[in-house]
Specification:
With 123 residues, the chain is an alpha+beta fold. The chain contains four helices and four strands; from the N terminus they run αβαβαββα. Strands 1-2 form a two-stranded parallel ribbon. Helix 1 runs parallel beside helix 2.
Length: 123
């Protein structure tokens, strides 16, 4: 018994946590072979981003008989650090995917955070 809230009254981060909890619960009962998450951590506080990263790491192990793949896009350090593989998208006339490293991805995260901070300073 917790409090009942109307979804409209929840913050973006709270809505994300609810949606992810539902997805993870369904996955435990009826797992799919893979999940595609596009910046699901964008509205989350660092504590919740870390919890989501841990949950993905735990859930990808599967039930011992089968594994599950999580394909995620993120500009946040917590999910990037939890990834097994890193792919980078380059834009030079057209988009191309190339394999990268954790350090490559963390550089992108840092640059993205610096850009966001500079934009906030201008406002």
């Amino acid at each position: 018994g917790g409090e009942v809230h109307v979804m409209r009254s929840l913050s973006g981060g709270q809505k994300s946590v609810v949606a992810l909890a539902i997805i993870f619960a369904i996955q435990r009962c009826d797992p799919a072979p893979f999940y595609l998450f596009d910046e699901v951590d964008a509205n989350l506080d660092p504590m919740y981003r870390g919890a989501v990263a841990k949950m993905i790491s735990k859930q990808k192990q599967g039930d011992g008989e089968s594994t599950v793949q999580f394909i995620t896009t993120s500009f946040q350090q917590e999910l990037v650090q939890a990834a097994d593989k890193h792919w980078l998208v380059t834009h030079s006339g057209m988009s191309r995917m190339v394999e990268g490293t954790l350090e490559d991805q963390l550089d992108i995260v840092r640059k993205n955070q610096q850009t966001a901070e500079q934009q906030q300073a201008l406002q």
